[in-house]
Amino acid sequence: MIDALMETASIYEQVKQYRPAETYYRAALSVDRENLAATVKLACLMRDTSDPGQRNLLDATLLFRRATELTHEKDVNLLVQLADLYAMGEYYDQAKEVLDKAMAQSREQHLSNMDQELLLARAQEYFFREHRADPGSGGGSPLSIVGGENFLPRAESANPYDSPKTESSQPPSARVIPPSAP
User: φ and ψ at 79, to 5 degrees?
Assistant: First the structure.
């Protein structure tokens, strides 16, 4: 029965009929609450649907959290997706905590150095978003640093070439002296 519900949900999803797909994924979960595939598929659907009336990031977050519990927090991909959802909601402490678990798992599972560096870069981006100068400028992907250009305050006297030019700070104008006649 689960297979039939999952297959039907998948077909609806392929033809971009997201509401019936959601219904069938939920039906699969009502039959088997431990079904990881249905949990993840429904979480992705709730996060990624283009229908604003159906999109539900809170539900997606709860579903991804359930999926990480079902995998005993061993699936790095699920942990990263959960961390991203926390960051989208600006719950940076939770995002960092989950991403730390993902980084620990990536080391334990001997993932490539590149994968581990990508996780570290993601953690740094969460940090920059959390500490951006303009807290109300959120939006966009959790991986695009909004307001990051204002993260460090400008030091007025750090580099004289960066400070605004005033009349007194302008170099003197050059004088052209014509060559003298022989």
Answer: -60, -40
